[in-house]
Structure prediction request, 577 residues.
Amino acid sequence: ISGLFRNVVGGKVLTKSDLDKPIKGMEEHLLKKNVAREAAVRLCESVEKELIGPFATKPRPYVISIVGVNGVGKSTNLSKLAFFLLQNNFSLLIAACDTFRSGAVEQLRVHARNLKELSEREHLGVVELYERGYGKDAANIAKDAIAYAAQQAFDVVLIDTAGRRHNDTRLMSSLDKFAQFAKPDKILMVGEALVGTDSVAQARAFNQAFGKGRRLDGFIISKCDTVGDMVGSLVSMVHATGIPVVFLGVGQHYGDLRTLNVTWAVQMLMS
Amino acid sequence: MVLQDLGRRINAAVSDLTRAPNLDEKALDGMIREIVSALQDADVNSRLVSHLRKSIKATVNLKDLSPGINKKRLIQKTVFDELVKLVDPHAEPFRPKKGKPNVIMFVGLQGAGKTTTCTKLARHYQTRGFKACLVCADTFRAGAFDQLKQNATKARIPYFGSLTSTDPAAVAAEGVAKFRKERFEIIIVDTSGRHRQEKDLFDEMTQIQRAVRPDQTIMVLDATIGQQAEAQSKAFKETADYGAIIITKTDGHASGGGAISAVAATHTPIVFIGTGEHMLDLERFAPQPFVSKLLGMGDMQGLVEH
Ligand SMILES: Nc1nc2c(ncn2[C@@H]2O[C@H](COP(=O)(O)OP(=O)(O)OP(=O)(O)O)[C@@H](O)[C@H]2O)c(=O)[nH]1
Ligand SMILES: Nc1nc2c(ncn2[C@@H]2O[C@H](COP(=O)(O)OP(=O)(O)OP(=O)(O)O)[C@@H](O)[C@H]2O)c(=O)[nH]1
Ligand SMILES: [Mg+2]
Ligand SMILES: [Mg+2]
Prediction:
């Protein structure tokens, strides 16, 4: 076995790719010696874990993506969420992955600039925008943004996506690829308080759009300030999916995001 | 499509009844109950639903009908008429005139589709030989002017706006004055989203309106809106006195009953519907063909005429 690891240079911090080949060889070797596959894989994994240096793989940033139908308040509430995380001293990269709607990139550029100024003034976290203009594939940009964030050691990547009708099969199916490329730790759907009975179908369709085994993690219910006590869409969306509401949008400014409990919300988002 | 499910369900309820061997009171009640729940599921305002139920009951009074009358036809026609009433306020929409400036101002709730639709409408008039342009009076929303600018550029429509001003009334006044002087015929003013709960935003809308003196104000409503439609559309009506409604996002799955309830609440006609995110996704709206199509009743026009 020692022969397998001969090419691995001593003293260097090892990465997963350095070890791929020798570990594979070790696995084959063990199988040949009649070690059961399950046990062989386990052994190899623990060897690999031991060998990879603690700083060898850059920690992946925490990835949150925001989805929903057209005009519900995705980009605005993403910016409010950014403000909330900045107040909790996280460093953020905002990824402009709505490459379709006119002005979508500029909208986030303005928010990123405002939030940066605000953060500097109030000594909050760090924020930057990652943009690649219009027309390109959102899933690819998301992937690149995450790689960039890992390299620059950002804590969190917030991904904005284009609005889409939940009955548009082409646009909905692209969410599957998006989830595979971006592997978001949390997918939050923005639903608005103004919407009527369509809320049920919206929530169900988005909950099922991310491929096998991947569901939404929470809702942001926006525009609660516009409906008085008619908050029925909130009930409908939770009822339709069993997914919890994480935030309520109650206005158009950065501070207009409510949560029942800050510690709970931070844990919910970051765990 | 808007109200598609509703149309299908109402249609089924009516044909079930008219096919029933005994066209009695009980069967009629069953049909009405099904129509009522279909309307509720479509977000139609609850008060309108109960009004519609009473109207059908009163018109189709089985006991007092003379034996010669075709009950099936009567029931179909009554349901049709009641639905048409729901979307037809009998008010004539504004028609722009060539050779003079027609200022059209857009108002509506946040994210309803105003900015997208104002380019669609400008393009609609442009292809009909009007000299059309756009003014961005949304100085609030991030990226609002860029959005309008990019859409206008794509459609080759002249535009005006400011990246630095924070006074929408001033920007609107300046833009409209400039385009009036340049003899534009359709001058469309886009404004930011607002809602009745914020008095400052409503005051701002009045200020813009005073500054540009529109010939026509249009309320843009999202087809997915629920029971808030009535209160919001009434409040906008009282403050901005709009003369027409455009319903957007009718390509979605939403029933559109909320948005349509605004017609009855404000006696204002729907003039166009938005059917997608692209420039050409705008269709004219007319109540009777709309309901005929909705109910799949090609022969309804014939019934309506007598
Ligand atoms: N009153 C109110 N307005 C809101 C709230 N959240 C967002 N908005 C407004 O809703 C409008 C649409 O917001 P956006 O963030 O652009 O919506 P979006 O979902 O990103 O839209 P698309 O990207 O075009 O699909 C803007 O005018 C926002 O200011 C809220 O909680 N309350
Ligand atoms: N599917 C569909 N989407 C539409 C339609 N009309 C507008 N949209 C989308 O709805 C979203 C909001 O449209 P906007 O035009 O920005 O809405 P707005 O009323 O100007 O929003 P504010 O200025 O923030 O109040 C965008 O993503 C549009 O592409 C439509 O008819 N169908
Ligand atoms: Mg957006
Ligand atoms: Mg707008």
The radius of gyration of chain A is 22 Å. The first strand of chain A starts at residue 62 and ends at 67. The first helix of chain A runs from residue 16 to 32. The beta strands of chain A are 62-67, 92-97, 127-130, 156-161, 186-192, 218-222, 245-249, 257-258.
